[in-house]
Structures are given as structure tokens and as C-alpha cells.
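FAQ: What does a ligand-bound record look like?

Like this one, built around glycine:
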Amino acid sequence: MKTSRAALVLTLLFGCGTAPTPVPAPPAPPTTTTATASAAAPPTASAAPTPPPVVLAPGFPAGWPYPADAAPATGQHGMVVTDAALATKVGLEMLKAGGNAVDAAVATAFALAVVYPGAGNLGGGGFMVARVDGAPHSLDFRETAPSKAGHDTFAAKPTGKPDDKGGTARLGHLASGVPGSVAGLWEAHQKLGSKKKTWAEVLAPAIKLASEGFIVDAEFTASIGQNAERLSKYPASAKLFLPDGKPVATGSTWKNAELAVVLKRIADKGPKGFYEGPTADLLAAEMKSGGGLITKPDLARYKAKWRAPIEFSYRGNKVVSMPPPSSGGVTLAMISQILEGYDLPKESFHSPAELHYIFEAMRRAFIARNEKLGDPDFVKNPVEELLSPAWATAQRATIKDDKATPTVELQPVAKDSGGAGPHTTNFSVVDEQGNAVALTTTINWFYGSGVTVAGAGFLLNNEMDDFATVPGKANGYGLVQGEPNAVAPNKRMLSSMSPSIVVGKDGHVSLVLGAAGGPTIITAVFLELAGVLDHGLSLMAATNAPRFHEQGQPDVVTIEKDGLTDVQRKSLEAMGYTFKERGHIADAPSIGWANGLWAGAAEPRRNGGLALGY
Ligand code: GLY
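The answer part, i.e. the structure of the complex:
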């Protein structure tokens, strides 16, 4: 699509449909604007003083709740978007105070550990993709299996079915890997921070939030309520999240004094304030009392690792994403490279023909992901082969133009593969210098293992379930994975986290993407990427568009409620697809850039998210 510079600005900010509407002059850039995750929120006056004509993206079914023409947050200098408003504000303040995107990301991540404890964390891990001074970086701070864990740790009581929430890899002390977040955030700040903001300065807002508290919103209360059963099993969790046996009340001020002390130790001593000394003592004692495996030597040994990012091209744009032990970048690249062989920009948006090729590409990429990928320090990942044009061509040769391929024709199908809902949290930050950070952090399921470290005020992850705890059996997301991702001492479990940065043809960061939601992370990120790059959707339209997820097993396409019209659905069913409906798929807030203006899209599916620019 050929566009003028003015039209490019309008496209990213407000969208481009098929109607031949004359392109008006862009509005004057505002200096500070906000977009919340409320689908119904009207554009703020400063976001668009002269709103452009509404051009609806084609393909949003009638009744779809999230509008294609919503106004993004915009800013000339920087932008932060997270799933929790208070954390967004912390990041924005750090940018305004002279920190770069990495300083702001580190401050935001620590703030999320306080204000969004179901997913933000000290007791989990994650991945960061950054572009700083034009150079790409990827940082792995994934949890590791405790040194006492092994291939058959979970074999005696295999979880087997995704709906078995009580399996030992999912609930309780055995479910936790050695946390990586503190080591990762330290590495990020040391290597890529501006050097204008000290470690103590980036931790200060989180310490303040934990010690002085914050007003609890309805989302916070509801999310505890939804997880009350697992939290009530562990006294320190019950005390923190269920005072008097009930979820922390909306409107009350919630403090976490024990967490404030832990954060202060980290501020004073760096990673040693977490991996050694009193915090490590408390964590090891918690493990011992609950039959967990993490020891003080495991904690002392933990290291975050810089890895070579996955880089690939999609429609002439460069995509930088996360390599193993996340499958995110490789799987995103496999989907993209299969689809580059089809002229999707010529199809109408979400037409049955386009969705068919997308589902088949997803299916094949996930089959390869599940069979072949694991921690690169333990198994050889055939990344070169999977990212080769020959691999993509071979996959396309198996795709019929008018018919779904049953997964069983491509790999043996296990019984009982199902799938769970979203969790994890992704956020993005960009700054005035054009630096960008996409960071995804997690304790796996919401509220992780359910176990809070007594005396330390933070939850531990249930990331062990991301391993193939019993190879060939489905995990909690229905992923049927193989030996490359089997448990081994000190090994990192395979992830789907996909923090990603797109660099446009002009060499500037054009999109910053990532998501929460297990395997749906990968497909949600791809759909946003394709919405913008294949169809010229605005950032908001691409974020707000219906999402679909196909992971090979179970052999069913997950769709969002009202995400397909009857006509689309019938047409796809006639090709052999079956569908399973879910309330929503993934949380995938995003940032885009055009012509000197950042745009931010909070996730409308996650109440409480916020994009702020300045
Ligand atoms: N815990 C989900 C993932 O890393 O994919």
C-alpha cells in the first residue's frame, strides 16, 4: 500500500479502511494523552482535538464490543502501556524524570510486583526485548528447575489433564521454579539503563506503593475472588489477600509491608538482597515447610542471560523477538514466514480464506514448537532449520487451499488436551530517543502456585507446569510437548512469551508488542502484527480486533465470543474447522509510532490497563 507521510500518521493512529475517503490533514500532536482499557471511553479532548472521520476496519462483526475507531494515547516524547494503571504512571514518571525506556521498564516491573500481584512479581521470571541506540537485545530471566528436580519429579502424580488445577506442577510448593525476575531487572538496568537513574531510584516508587499502600479497585478485588480457593490453602496468601476470609475490599488501602522490606533490601544490595541473606532464608524456609525443592544454593546460583534475539522479516519490516527458552520468537517467525507466501494483504480482513491460511500456519508452527524446542543450554534447538525459507515452503506444500488439515494427519494426537485462560503480564515502554522495551513477566497462572513466601509478601510461580512434566501429556494450556522440554535440574522451562519490536522500513521502531495468555500470547501478537502490516489497521483497531488461536492440539480453533460472524463461521466449518468459544483471548497492549508521534493502546479486554504518553 502506498501512502503519503500524513496518511501514514493517520493510519497508525486512527486506521485505514477500504473506503476511498480523502485523507484530511493530521491533527496537531498533543503533548499528553491517555487511553484506558475501557472500550466505552470517549477520546480525550487532548487526544484528538479535531477527530478525523471514522473509518471502520472491515471484518469486525456486528456486536463486537471493542471499537476499531477508538483513539489511542499519544505522546511526542514517550509512552508506557501496562495492564495496571498505577504501574503505567510509575513508568511515565521515570521517563519524565530523565530515565530512558529501560529505566522506566525496570521501575514499571517492580511497581507491577506490588500493584498487580496476580502476574507482576518478584517470585517469577520473564523476558525482555529491547532496542537501545539502534541495537537489539534480548534478556532471559526465565525461572530454572530446582537442582533437586528431575525428569520424573511429577511422574508419580501426573496432572495429565489441563483442567486438573490441583496437580503438583500447578498448585503448591513443588510447582515453583527458581525465580529470575530480580536478576533480570538488575541486568537490564546495569547494561541498558541510562546511568542517570540509580538502582535505588528505579525501585523507590515500588517501595512507596508497598509501604504506603494504594486504593484497591474493583478489578483487584475480583481477581482475588476468582482465585480465592487456591489462595486460601496457604496461610501467608490468605493473610495477605483474604483478610477476614474475604478478598481485599474495593476502595480500601492495601499495603504490603513485608514486600516493602524485601524491595528495600533489593534496593540496598542489588540481587544479593533477594538471592542471599534474609529474603533467601525466608524463601528456603517456605520451601522446606511446604515440601518444595528450591534451596539457598539454587537461589545463589541463579543467573539471567543475554541471548541473541530472533530476527526475521515480515512484509519488508524487521521483527525482533525472544529466542529460546521462549518459543515466542521462533514460533512467531514460523507463522509469519509460512504466511509470507500468501498474498494476505489482498484478502479482505478476517475473510474465511485469510483465516484458513492463518489457522493452518499456526497449527504447523505449534506442532514444530511443541516437538522441537527447549532450553538451548540443554537441548539443540533447530532454529536455523525452522526459520529457513525451505521449512516455510515445505509447510505451505501441505496446506490445502480450501480445506483444514486435521492435526492427526501431521502428528499423533494426545487425549485430554484442553487449555486454560490468560495470566502473565506484558508491558511496553518507548522513549524520546526512539529506544523501546517490550517486557513480559509472569508467575504463570494468576497468583502462580498460590503460595506466598511467609514473611516476604510475594507469591511464587507455578512455572514447572510449562515443562513437559510428563512428555506427551498435555499441560495446563493443553500443550502436548516432548522430551526437549522435559524437566532437568537447573533447566529453564519452555515459554510462549513473545516480547517483540518491529522496525519499519525507515529504520525506526514502528511497533512494540507482547501479550499475556500462555500459548495465545504468540497468536495474539501475530494477529496484531498482521493487522497493521497486512491490512493497514490502526494500532487500536489491531489491538481491539477479534482474536483466534490454533495450537494444533486440541484440534479446535479457540475464538472470542462474537469474534466471528455466522457467515464466516459457517464457511470455515464447511472447510473442516471446529470452534471453541472463550470470553477473551490474551492481553496484548501495544505501542506504535509514526512520524514522530507515539501511539499507545491499552488492552480493552483487561480492566485496569492504561496507556500514557507525554
Ligand atoms: N507461563 C507461560 C509461558 O511462559 O508461556
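Follow-up question: can I read anything off the structure? Yes, for example: The CA atoms of residues 70 and 370 lie 37 Å apart.
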